[in-house]
Each structure stands twice: as C-alpha cells, then as structure tokens.
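Re: your question from the hallway

Yes, I did run it. Sequences:
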Amino acid sequence: MRGDDVVATSEEHAAIRVSSVAHEFGEEGDARHVRALAETSLEVARGELLALIGPSGCGKSTLLNIMGGLLAPSRGTVQVGAEQVRGPLPRSIAYVFQENALFPWSTVRENVELGMTFQGVPAAEREARARKALQAVGLADFAEHYPGQLSGGMRQRAALARALSLDTGILLMDEPFGALDEQTRMVLGEDLSVLLANERKTIVFVTHSLGEAVFLADRVAVFSARPGTVKQIIAVDEPHPRRPQFMTSAKFHALRDRLYSLLHDEIRKTMEETYGVRR
Amino acid sequence: MNWRSAPRSPWIARLVLIGALFGAWEIAARWFVDKMFLSPPSRVFVSLGEVLRTPGVLDALKQTFWELGAAFALSVALGLALGLAVGLRPFPRRSLMPIVLLLYGLPQITILPLFILYFGIGPASKIAFGVSHGVFPVIVTTVAGVQNLKPILVLSARAMGANRMQMLRWVVFPHMIPSFFSGLRLAMSGVLLGVLLAELYVSQSGIGHFTTLFTQSLEPTKLLGLIALLAAMAIFLNEVVRRAETRFDRFKTV
Amino acid sequence: MSRVVQAGFVLAVLALWYLATEYWGVSGLLLPKPAAVLRELTDVIRTGEFVADLRITLGELAAAFVLSATGGTALGYLVSRSQYWTRTLEPLISAAYAIPIILFLPLYVLFFGLGPASKIALGATISFFPVALSTVAGFGGVERMYTVAARSMGCSGYQLFRWVLLPAALPVILTGLRMGFTVALLSILGAETLSSVSGLGHRIVSLGENMAMARMFAYIVFAVAIAASLNAIVSWLEARGRRA
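Structure:
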C-alpha cells in the first residue's frame, strides 16, 4: 500500500521531471517584478494523473506553462522523457486551457482539426481522428456548429477533443472546468474520468476545486502561497474510472478534509496579502 | 396588404417622404426658382440620355470609375501591407501609429494643388489623391484587428505547434477579418472623396471639365444629370463594399 | 523609446526636404526650400496678410456650423421622439450621408455664386448629417428606465427634457457636434479650393497657379495649423462637456 506524501517515483518511468524550477516576471527593482514560483521539484509518473492545487497566484499555472514549454523558467530545467524542454512540444504535449481557446471563426470540427493541420497530418487522417475525438467527448452531433453557438461546457468538451485528437502522451490542463457551473463540472468530471481510463495518458491539471482534485487525480500536489512551491503531495489510491459513489465515500471526505486543512492557511495568507490585513 | 397596417411599414413612409421631396423639388423648379439655377427632376431624368451623349461625358465617367477602382485596390493593398508591418509587433506599433494617426488627421484638401502639380492633370493624380485618403482607414483597422487578438488564442496555437506562417494564416488573418472589412468600407468612402475632389478640381479634363462647362453655360439640367450619375456610381460602389462586409459576418468574434 | 522614433521620423523628413532642395537639385518650382517657406510664413504672419482670408474662412465656418448645429439637433430631437420615425428616417439619413456631398458643390456654386454663400451652404449641408444622426442616437438611446423613473416622480415634459433626456443624450450629441465641426471645416476648405475667389483654400490655389511655391507652402502650413488648433479646441470642449 502506498503511503501518503510520496514525492518521487522511479527514475526510468518519470514522464515529466521538474528540477529546481523557479520563475520571476519582470526584473529586480522593476515595479512589476513578481516572484511567481519558488524553487520547485516534481516528478510525474507515466500514465498518472497529477493535480496541482493551491491559492490564487501561487504559481501553479506558471509551472504548468513551464512544463509544457510555453514559458522558459528563470531557473531550473524540465525534462519530458529524455528530452529537455526548450519550447512547445506539440507532438508530446497537448493543452486544454481554462476557456475560450477555441477559434470563434471556425466550426468545432475545424477547431479540432487545427492542431493536426499545424503538424501536417494529411486530410483524411485528420478527419478520422477528429471524428473519433468528438465522439469520445459526446460532441459528434455538433461538429459543424460554431463555438459561439455552444454552451461553456460543450466548448470545453470541444477543447478536450482538440487536445485528444493530437494523440500526445501528455495532457496539460489549466483549470479546464474553472469557468463552468457546479453541475456541469460534476458531469464533465465524471465523463473525463471514464474517458481517461481508456486513454492511458499522463495528465497534469491545475484546479481550484478540492473535490475535483480528489475525484480525478492519482496524486494531488498542494502549493503554498506566493511565491509558491510544492508544500505536500497526497496520494489518492482509488482505481480508475472513478465512480460517482466515490464522491460520497468516507475515503473521499477524509482526503478532501486533509487538502482543506493544508490549503486553508495558505488561502488566508494569500487573501490578506492581496487585500490588505483584514479580519 | 391591409391598409391600416400600410402606413406602419417604414418602407412605405420612406418612399412617400422621398416622393414628397422630389415633388417639392419639381414644384419649386417649375414655378418658383429661376430656370438658370434649378431644374425639375422630371426634366433632369429625361435629359440624362442627352448628357451621356455629350461628347466626352461617357468617357469621363468611365475614366472616373476605373480611377476609383484602381485607387481602392491600391489603398487596400498598401494599407494591408503597412498595417501588418506596423501592427504585428508592439514596438513598431507604439512608435509608428501616432505618426500614422497624425497624417490621417491632416486636412489633405490643402495639398490637392500639390498633387496636381506633381502628378499632372491625368488619372495619376486622381488615383494618388484617392489612395492618400483611402489608405489610412485600412492601416488603422488592420492594426486594430491585429491588436485585439486574444493572447490565449496565440498561446493555444503555439502550444499546438503553429509556425509563423501558420499563425498568420489560421489565427491572425481570420481574426482580422471583421476589422478589415469595416476598413474596406471606410477606404471606399475615402477613395470616393479623394478621387472626386481631384476630378472636380481639374477643369481641363475629366468630370471637372464638364461640371465647369455646365456651370458656366448655366445648364442646371445637365449639371444635375451629371451629378446624379456620379452619385449613383458612389452609391453603387458603397453598396458593393457594404454587402461584402455582411457576407463575412461569421468572422465576428463573440 | 517610441518617442525617439517619432522625433527621428520628423527629423528625417525635414532632413530629406533640406537635402533635396539644397543639394539634390530638386527644382524650387516643385519643392521650395524649407528656409524659404519659413521666411514666407513669418512674413505672412508679421504683415497680417492672412487676416482677410482667415476671416472669410472662419466666418463661413461659423455660419455653416451654426446652421447645421441648430438644424441638426432640432431635427434629430424631433425624429428621436418617435420610434417609428427613428426607424424610418435614420437609415435614410445615413444612406444620404454615404454619398460624397462635395459632388453637389457645382450646384451650390451655380445657385449661390462663387462667394462665401455657396461655401456656407455646402458646409452646413455636409455637417448637418453627423449632428442629426448623433442627436437621434443620443436621445433615442436614453434608457427607458430613466424616463419611467422620472415620470413616476411626477415630472412635466419640460422637466423631463431638462433633467433627464438632455443630460443623458449630451455626451453623444457633443461628439456629433465635434464631428460636424470638423467636417464643416474640411468641406469649406475643400469648396474654397475647388471654386472660390476668397478664403484660405483659394489663397493656396492661387499662389500655386502663380508658382509662388514658398508662399503657397507657408499658407498650407498655416491652414493645417489653424485646422489642427480648431480641432484641438473643439475636442477639448467635447471632453469638458462630457465630463460635466
């Protein structure tokens, strides 16, 4: 039985290895200087789903962007497999952003095919993969719609389909359900779990929701307040696909409570810093 | 059509109003105003053929039309190129846009005589003056279209591995389209103004020759006829661009 | 850094102008030397030669703007009172504005002659449109809630106008007035350039015809400066009015 607080996994299996990464925006002495991320090290095992959770501004999205090669860190390195990350790796890593990353002037199908177009995938194969991805997220009937005609939940499904169609080994998701209401989140979370159980991808996703983190993740990395670093990692030992009953189980609640107590002080600290000392 | 609802339709009211205006014009021209100064619409309409048959008028009209087309095409091409050059990166935009806006705001009519001096009394000066008016809205709207591109769309495309060309073709250009088309509409207005001003100014040939001729020989009928034809040309060209703009409506981002 | 580029641009233009006329042999009949232009400009200002033309141009502008401002706001207000008439007339007015009205200048000249009257008439006609359209939009865009709230407090027609409609519509109307002013100025300068015997526009043309290039350039600079100053003043007034 794996104990809690597992920090590292076997070297050969790490899909992503983050070594002493720290990041600052702006220059020292500049008014806009921000220490976004304190020195952080982390490993993501192949095929696991790691959740990053923490108070606002703690650097979890920054870390995600660094992992994906969208941002060059001020210090430290990231390795994906054997390669060191120096820029985006479209063939290895696919992204799902929080909202509105679909191009409003293209249909859902065109949006899903776009990544493959950039990578030079031939048309017939593009179409087939897009159709498969849309079917997997339940949007097959909406392929010819425009994003503006869809609800927020459907748009995120489309964004997910786009990421899946790229057939990458790694999926990075930055608060994918952040802009959605509670009910949609619940449904999408369950669907995502079923979907990912079949796909065997390595996934890192950032979330604000404790429940979502526990429900979906194999491990949850809790961040401290800005400048953030990984405070603790908690393992969720529950087989995939996670069933709805898991949400109401005692194990779920215990884990969620642990997360809460770890986070509570960090959140308070962040709020006070942002809005001034308040009581 | 139910008569009670008929007055409610805006189109009926508009037609009635336009009819009333033409009617007032007709009455005023026939009985109240000296024949030297105003001609009734009925006579103007009837003598349109005569105007067109006046030697040189049809050629002048055709010439003006192709000057408008050429000026428009040049304005769009030049404006797009300059707009992209200035707008795609923040530094050129911040430093060069104020210059563009300054030039855009100048009362160019004051240098019309210079254009004629430099480019002559032929079509070149008309086209040049037209381009000088039409190029600026295209530059400004192109820069605006590129500028408010949402960063997340660029990030998303980068993450999917888009290279520079792909970024332009699949992200920047589609995003720019609504802005670009409103720029086209403004460019057409500008070109119409520039070309027509230049044409009216040059009295040795072209439209200006005939407006001067008809004015000096006190022929309001023919003058009105010529102006009506030019106005029709302007309306036609404006409509074409306006229609084109609505056809690309789907690119308007939500 | 961008300021440096802008300053550099201006300096480059001046430098090219200087080099072209001093060393590269561009004829003074095409491009006068910058020093000559400056000399003529100071002469024009010192002798007050510009006063007569400026007075005419500004007089035409004032008359045209008064006409279009009163006519435009009055008609705009009346039209805005009825949704039906707004829907009916507004597109017509917009469509008419889309035609380059400068085309009608020969008609105005035929009717009013080459003097200031034709310029005033044309300027008033052209600037009527932005004023009227913005007045319609301004009064028409007043939130119904404001009217309903005011009426529920028992206000009369005049009070409604003075305390609700006018303040709410004013920002939009001020913008329309500013646009009308700018357009009137341009139209009048244009009309003076095309067919006139007086005014700044005419002065520029006649100097050009007499090949007095340096003086012509001086008047161009002068006219542009006047136009820019007037526009700046009007924009400032608009901003003041909107803030109040």
